[in-house]
Write a structure and sequence with these properties.
This protein is 50% helix and 27% strand. The protein has helices spanning 2-37, 86-99; strands spanning 40-45, 52-59, 65-73, 79-82. It has a 4-stranded antiparallel sheet, with helices on both faces. Strand 3 and strand 4 form a beta hairpin. It is elongated. It starts with a helix and ends with a helix.
Length: 100
């Protein structure tokens, strides 16, 4: 019984490591794609029990957002996805937050 528990524990640890590496690779690839377009701003909103959010914004020198990508999910389940109009929403929140 104890051996089965150990096997399950080690398997879960290895799976977590594999999926974590996959997540990092996905993030690096997307960051590089955005970096080619323009300088990239990264924002995060980590959560303890709920899924956190990570956003990447490719911003021109004049402040125009060329593209936005959002990573939302639970640790190893996170993936990057296109974020249509989320750049505008984020800028509004940032402007409201910094003006207070």
């Amino acid at each position: 019984m104890l051996i089965y528990f150990g096997v399950i524990l080690v398997s879960a640890f290895l799976l977590q490591g594999f999926l974590g590496l996959r997540q990092i690779k996905n993030f690096s690839k997307t960051f590089h794609q955005l970096r080619v377009l323009a300088p990239v701003a990264i924002g995060k909103n980590p959560k303890k029990l709920r899924s956190g959010t990570l956003i990447l914004l490719a911003i021109k020198d004049d402040g125009t957002i060329l593209e936005a990508q959002m990573m939302k999910g639970l640790r190893f389940l996170q993936s990057l996805g296109n974020c249509i109009n989320c750049g505008r929403k984020i800028l509004r929140k940032l402007l409201l937050h910094t003006s207070n």
